[in-house]
Amino acid sequence: MSEHEDYRRAEIVVDLGAIRRNVEKLCDAVAAGSDGPAVMVVVKADGYGHGLFGSARAARAGGATWLGVADRDEALDLREEGDTGRMLAWLGMPGEDYGPLIEADVDVAAYSTQQLEEIVEGATATGKVARVHLKVDTGLSRGGAPLSTWKGLVDAAAKAEKAGHVKVAGIWSHFACSDEPEHASNDLQEEAFEAALEVADKAGLEPEVRHLANSAAALLRPSSWYDLVRFGIAAYGLSPAPHVTNIDHLELEPAMTVHAKAALTKDLAIGDAVSYGHTFTAERPMRVALVPLGYGDGIPRHASSLGPVQIRGHRGRILGRVCMDQFVAEAPRGTVAGDEVVLFGPGTNGEPTAQEWAEACGTISYEIVTRMGGSANRVAKRWTDDDGSLV
Ligand SMILES: *Cc1c(COP(=O)(O)O)cnc(C)c1O
């Protein structure tokens, strides 16, 4: 049946070749290397669930000159594993010891003067110049200095730069609605970013990279490119704006496949009700498969009676509630225990995609892939590549 019979219960397969090819396509799409911006691939949260190290290697091989992470430890893990390229870590905590990041040559982000002071402390302690990316909040109201405190942060950074503690390597911000290209806030955020850049310019700052765009903005708003774009979800082959069809021509390849073996099959009679709460009742005689994955493995409980699966080339769906370790799925006649059940994959063999799962569950593909595997960590993960070089 399956090409890979070497797993016992269920498996998450990550195609690193797909990530590499996606990044190559994304670099081409923004003309990186010629007139276009440099490319960062964001590998936070274990590479959106695809594995930190494999994703990072594939991203570098595809042409990413930068990697982006949220947490300090993600950056330090990458350095320990041998990555030596440009890297930005952007989610510092109050009282953070920036020494190890500065020592490891990781660029850091400052959202406030307090954070900048902590970065200066780290620089002083290590005797190195910290490379800082000042973040301005242009309308997301999440990280970054609001425009009211921006000038204060810029002036403090200019002073710290003169004193030799930091180099302002970047000025950056993040969109709220880039997946809705027509949303009025996109233009407003770009205007606010321009105003923030002017304040920095007047203070004498000369950032190496100004950056604003995530995947959706990079693909849909060339005006937001500046010197660097930050690709996350698109690198993993999923659309950042699923309802915008002019991304389709890129033919990005979803890199993650999740499959399992049916633990058991049985036939239901009319009137048989399924799983906790009996939320599904068979209205016809039907074959079902017991799939050994549940919310303990990252399957959303919101997928109850909605999540799509493929068995023996046939599409079916989850029947009744998703439990902690298992769910029941519609199966074609003839299905036997041990048959492969594909939850999602690239979609090239008619199997569902993570995007379909997201729509079924009322969420976004980002959440589906990032949570897959779950905190119990009992689903085997395997990394493949077309030529084996990245595994
Ligand atoms: C996660 C993240 C990105 C990547 O976003 P995608 O929509 O996945 O491309 C870019 N920038 C920041 C600040 C992020 O937190």
TrEMBL record:
Signal peptide span: none
Stretches assigned to the Alanine racemase C-terminal domain: 255-381
EC number(s) given by UniProt: 5.1.1.1
Keyword Transcription attributed: no
Binding site for substrate: R142, M324
Catalytic reaction annotation: L-alanine = D-alanine
Annotated InterPro entries: Ala_racemase (IPR000821), Ala_racemase/Decarboxylase_C (IPR009006), Ala_racemase_C (IPR011079), Ala_racemase_N (IPR001608), Ala_racemase_pyridoxalP-BS (IPR020622), PLP-binding_barrel (IPR029066)
N6-(pyridoxal phosphate)lysine found at: K44
GO molecular function: alanine racemase activity; pyridoxal phosphate binding
Any single Pfam family the record assigns to this protein: Ala_racemase_C
Required cofactor(s): pyridoxal 5'-phosphate
Cited CDD domains: PLPDE_III_AR (cd00430)
Active-site residue numbers: K44, Y276
Top-level lineage group: Bacteria
Entry keywords, A to Z: Isomerase, Pyridoxal phosphate
GO cellular component, one term: cytosol
Protein family: Belongs to the alanine racemase family.
Job of this protein: Catalyzes the interconversion of L-alanine and D-alanine. May also act on other amino acids.
PANTHER family: ALANINE RACEMASE (PTHR30511), ALANINE RACEMASE, CATABOLIC-RELATED (PTHR30511:SF0)
Name of the protein this chain belongs to: Alanine racemase
